[in-house]
């Protein structure tokens, strides 16, 4: 009987993991399909939108805000600089610090990417049917607690709240 409980528990956890992974893959697939006409990937759009919204950022600061593989966005930023969407400059007052900015074309693409992703957001809203997401947020936060990704989520929330605060 104890074995059945363990097996049942493991199956539940595996099912939860399967659903999370499937949702992440489906999200990436749908968003990449929407961004394809713009010539950028989901990761590139995320970087552009973060730099546009919170920039200028150092490479390290951008890395702490990105939900990306590896956690260090140097290759991603290199590609975006090469394509003329981001630029690097020495920080005013500290020439050792390199800051990343959106170019005018990068800013336009960041806005276009947000608009392109709107059908996905509408689809998710329809799929959710007005459900209260508070328990889901609490569940996902509990799973991420103590991980590097929980810190990334916290930093993004903090930046968003600061940017939206009046004054």
From TrEMBL:
Pfam families: MarR. GO terms for biological process: response to stress. SMART domains: HTH_MARR. The lineage of its organism: Bacteria, Bacillati, Actinomycetota, Actinomycetes, Pseudonocardiales. This is MarR family transcriptional regulator. PANTHER family: HTH-TYPE TRANSCRIPTIONAL REPRESSOR YETL (PTHR33164:SF43), TRANSCRIPTIONAL REGULATOR, MARR FAMILY (PTHR33164). InterPro entries: HTH_MarR-typ (IPR000835), MarR/SlyA-like (IPR039422), WH-like_DNA-bd_sf (IPR036388), WH_DNA-bd_sf (IPR036390). One of its GO terms (molecular function) is DNA-binding transcription factor activity. SUPFAM superfamilies: Winged helix' DNA-binding domain. It comes from Amycolatopsis rhizosphaerae. Residues 13-145 form the HTH marR-type domain.
